[in-house]
Amino acid sequence: MYKLKVLPKKRWWSSDNISGYVFISPWLFGFLVFSLLPILASLYLAFTKYDILSEPEWVGFDNFTEMFTADPRYWKSVQATLIFVFVAVPLRLCFALVIAMLLNTKLKLLGFFRAAYYLPTLIGGSVAVAVMWRQLFGAAGAFNSFLTAVFGIVAKISWITQPSTALLTLVLLSVWQFGSSMLIFLAGLKQVPAELYEAATVDGAGGWQKFKRITLPLLTPVIFFNLVMGVINGFKVFTEGMIVTGGGPLDTTLFYALYLYEKSFRYYEMGYGSAMAWVLLLTIGFLTAILFASSKKWVYYESKGD
């Protein structure tokens, strides 16, 4: 019989551990100085009245009370953000899944199409694209010209300045940036065993039945990942509302992050902005926890034998 030799635990000051700490010290320094300390500072400022130019004044929960009871623009920003998240995120996922399934077939120039569809994601969050989108849906933009040339509709309105259509243009911009979700879906489709489709074909299953019974269940982990990331990024949307519409007509595109920015850096209400940031953090954390809790009922993991 051989006896297992238990190696002694290395103390944290051993040479190997010190070497590891030295190698990760740049990251540790950056995390402490640029992440952890600002997070703790913002938590303190959330309970103060602070205008950057003077010392913070402790006000307790006054910022939160004003936010929830005396600031109508705050609730407009919440409404605009919720509409954007619950409309743009599902549309983006559905569109990305459809394109991924098309690219999963044997097409010519497949690499070109993948790169072309992914390109909007690479440049989609830039200021240049936001400016381009503003020109596209302006009164003299290409979208109105398209309506006139194809459908004979003479439209001279600016779609980004109309309260009923301004938010829709930003939803379309978000859906247009579907490349990252598409690539993740495409990777998931590549992992589905071809034998399952062959067996389903032998049993007489059609295309819809294969998608419903094979493709969709095996893609649920990928759908779950894209959904979580989409919700988180949706609540943080800023550039589109800032550059394309500037908050929009009647605050219809005044997203939460945009209003937080205005309060903090335009009106110098840094304490109020910090309070808004913590509400946003807790909201995203709560919704993410709900998604993780619900995933047990609809996400299929083959390794677990669900």
Architecture overview:
The protein has 13 helices and two strands; from the N terminus they run αββαααααααααααα. It has 306 residues and is mostly helical. Strands 1-2 form a two-stranded antiparallel ribbon. β1 (48-49) and β2 form a beta hairpin. α1 packs across α13, α3 (72-103) crosses α12 and α8 (179-190) packs antiparallel against α10.
Please work out how many helical segments DSSP would assign: 13
User: What sort of overall outline do the alpha carbons produce when their principal axes are compared?
Assistant: globular
User: What fraction strand?
Assistant: under 5%
Sketch the topology as an H/E string, one letter per element: HEEHHHHHHHHHHHH
Distance between the termini: 40 Å
Per DSSP E runs of 2 or more residues, the count of β-strands stands at 2
Structural Rg? 25 Å
What structural class do the secondary elements suggest?
A: mainly alpha
The neighbouring-strand order within the major sheet is: 1-2
Poorly predicted ranges: none
Give me the secondary-structure topology.
Blueprint: H1 15-45, E1 48-49, E2 57-58, H2 62-69, H3 72-103, H4 110-123, H5 127-136, H6 142-151, H7 166-176, H8 179-190, H9 194-202, H10 207-235, H11 239-245, H12 256-266, H13 270-298
Antiparallel strand pairs: 1-2
Helix pairs in contact: 1-13, 3-7, 3-8, 3-10, 3-12, 4-8, 5-11, 8-10, 10-13, 12-13
